[in-house]
Amino acid sequence: MLKNKLSRRTFLSLAGVAGVGAGVAAKTALGITDGFLEDLGEGTVADEVVPTVCEICFWKCGVLAHKKDGRVFKITGNPSHPLSRGRLCPRGAGGPGLLYDNDRLKKPLIRVGERGEEKFREATWEEALDRVAEGFQKVADEHGPEAVGMLYHGAGASFFKTLLHGFGTPNIAAPSYAQCRGPREVGFELTYGEGVGSPENLDMRNTRTLVLIGAHLGENMHNTQVQDFAECLGKGAKLIVADPRYSTAAGKADWWLPVRPGTDIALILGWMHVILREGWYDKAWMQRNTIGLDKLEAHVARYTPEAVFVETGIEPDVIVETAEALSATAPASLVHPGRRVTWYGDDTQRSRAIAMLNALLGNWGRPGGFNMTSNVPIAKTELPAFPEHRPIADKLDGQYIFAGSPLASGLRDATLTEKPYPIKAWMVYGCNLPNVLPNTQKTLDAIQKLDFMVAIDVLPAEVCGWADVVLPECTYLERHDDLIAPWYREPFAALRQPVVDPMGESKPGWWMAKQLAKRLGLEQFFPWENPREMIHARLKASGYNAAQIADVEQRGVILGEPEPLYLPTDYEYEYGTPSGKIEFFSQQLADAGFDPMPTYRRPEMPPAGSFRLLTGRAPSHTFGRTANNSLLLDSYPENELWVNRVIAADFGLLHGGYAMVFGEGDTKTGPIRVKVTERIRADCVYMVHGFGHSARGLSKAHGRGANDSAVTTRYETDPLMGGTGFNVNFVRIEPAPDSSLGGVEA
Ligand code: SF4
User: Fold this and answer.
1) Which H/E stretch holds residue 454?
2) CATH class of residue range 109-177+380-473+506-531
3) In terms of CATH, what superfamily is 179-371+574-591?
4) Contact between residue 245 and residue 679 where contact means Cβ atoms under 8 Å apart
5) Among the atoms of ligand 1, which is closest to the Cα of residue 56?
């Protein structure tokens, strides 16, 4: 085995909580080295174990970082933490691969070439921070503080959000809303008066029939949900998977429904038609909890299984059989609301259809459905009021009126159009915008219109190559972030705290934000010396004494007293909707000129010779964030293009060979390895998102596989809340020109 690599087998056993140690190979001059991992064999004993919170993805599992001789050699799940319960997903165990990645940004950088050329010189922190403060101040002086925008991802953004709110701008947006789960939250809010939150309030561990419609548990490795999924299947739950692709979950399913892409709403309305027609629902519960059932019944009358078959390709008897299976175990039946749901531009209505089908199953506040949540109350930080400002510039008057959070794509549009007012500077935190927002060229055009841009990141992702100043942040294993206290079935508050000192000259976000605050005259928003002091102040104000605070640092988590998970039988629950009931018919939508109940509209089909491009995840990767992680790359080194066997034969594509993928205009990506399979419909192709990196500084990820974002030029914007649906994008495929990239007949 190479000294600088764990074998795939070793890594997987590490992810499976086997004891694996690691030694230290030669350090680079900066003290960061990829060559850190050497298998010391089982039984290696840590000389220190530090509890903290994972940030390889946003799920925020509690972890234990095991150290030997000052270096992290293993990460395991914190048994006390409700989101990990002592286990991690494969990515979480790969934390040292990020910590010791030799490609990490090590010093502040200042651009010397053109934007996008990735030409920088190293700078001192003093100079780099001065540049950022000057850049923001100049823009604010000319256009007002609102002309500074922030686009971010991750818990570490909180200090920079405070900084920019204090500066006087509301233009702070996360793509995880309009590009991911926003439509789901709005769809549920319109129906139940509340969203499903994050982590979601799913009692999946007690579900007896589960529907996954476009949700890919098992590929999408939200640790706790995957554990719950395994538990419900282990207890004999029935599984219905509706997906154009035979996913990992479909492999476990009792029914796989290879639904035509873009026709989910028809299928869901068809299920509701059957349940209502057959009277397979709890009438007393509906009476107590819902309004508009009669209108729904009339609305879905035309969505007969036969009519739905024409649209979806799912046989009528299968629609009836699966509707019956769902009803038979209700209310312990659940239609998973999904996570990334930005597909066709009608995504809020699609999510609302899912919310309504769940309502027909009567599963709100019931075992196996949606459980109630509670939290550990933590006192807020006491800060001065933020300044008054103009309204957020993410949309024009009257647009996307149901948006519940700022729209990242809207800020991009405002930057391009200068409407409703100019945005002239961006702070980009932990968010690789060219590969995240649909239509990369539009993002780059917006960046070119900026007077100033700073990128704050751990690795030199593509977005850094377009920044004027790049600030190197240390990883989650080297810093405090603010306390994490979500609403969940088991209330908890968790602490992210440093396991080792920051490597190279990287710095924690807190430190950077405070230094910028000093330069911008905003120190009043950072009254503490360091984040630990702030966390202690919050805990103290919440009633914790010194011994209890020390205990929190020792355990990494505070556990609260859970409220009841389920509503009492016959309880008259007051839902947060205008009517106080679950709303099958939404007067809010009708009043705003939208369909009060979801209506199916046939999506545009790909032209001859083109295919709908679908994307998803690999279990060992968090999209593009882990593509440079040597531990995780070992188990999934590059993405593949799934192509139906018949199509592959027509287009001369060989299994294991390579293809090029072409989008509109001159956009293209690849070469990407071809997976010829019958596990995908013939009208679409599929790849895992997050590969095909072009950033030169990502030495391990560079050029591996294809970048779906590069060919995603078309998208549809949800008229209700501004979400951007990507699955309306069509591509063409061809064998890669280099014959050495050939494969075999499948
Ligand atoms: Fe980390 Fe995996 Fe949990 Fe995400 S799901 S926080 S990557 S352990």
Assistant:
1) strand 452-457
2) alpha beta
3) Dimethylsulfoxide Reductase, domain 2 (3.40.228.10)
4) yes
5) 7
Q: Taking a C-beta distance cutoff of 8 angstroms, is the pair 288, 641 a contact?
A: no
User: 187 CA distance to ligand 1 centroid (A)?
Assistant: 26
Ligand 1 atom nearest 91 alpha carbon: 7
For a ligand 1 pocket test, name from 54, 84, 484 the mutation site with the most ligand atoms within 8 angstroms of its C-beta: 54
Domain with CATH 2.40.40.20 in the chain: 611-735
pLDDT in tens, 320-369: 999 999 999 999 999 999 999 999 999 999 999 999 999 999 999 999 99
Query: Alpha-carbon distance 615 to 256, whole Å?
Result: 19
* CATH 3.40.228.10-classified regions of the chain: 179-371+574-591
Mean pLDDT (whole number) for 425-437: 96
Q: Where are the CATH 3.40.50.740 domain residues in the chain?
A: 109-177+380-473+506-531
Q: Which residues, at least 6 apart from 134, have a Cβ–Cβ distance to it below 8 Å?
A: none
Site residues for ligand 1, CB cut-off 6 Å: 54, 56-57, 59-61, 88-89, 91-92, 221-223
Question: 659 - beta bridge partners?
Answer: 672, 735
Atom 8, ligand 1: residue with shortest CA distance: 92
Tell me which DSSP letter residue 198 carries. T
SS3 464: helix
pLDDT tens across 20-53, in order?
222 223 233 333 344 444 544 567 789 999 999 9
Report the predicted TM-score, pTM, of the whole model to 2 decimal places: 0.93
Helix segments in 610-698, DSSP class H: 630-635, 645-651
Dist CA 306 CA 298 (whole Å): 17
Instruction: Give 510 Cα–ligand 1 centroid separation in angstroms.
Output: 23
CA of 49 to the centre of ligand 1 (A): 18
Tell which atom from ligand 1 comes closest to the C-alpha of 93: 8
Amino acid at 497: Q
Separation of CA 577 and ligand 1 centre (Å): 33
d(CA 531, CA 547): 19
CA of residue 89 to ligand 1 center, whole Å: 6
Q: Residue 198 — φ and ψ, nearest 5°? A: -145, 115
Nearest CA residue ID for atom 1, ligand 1: 92
Domain 611-735: assigned CATH number: 2.40.40.20
Tens-digit pLDDT profile for residues 511-553: 999 999 999 999 999 999 999 999 999 999 999 999 999 999 9
Q: Whose CA is nearest to atom 3 of ligand 1?
A: 61
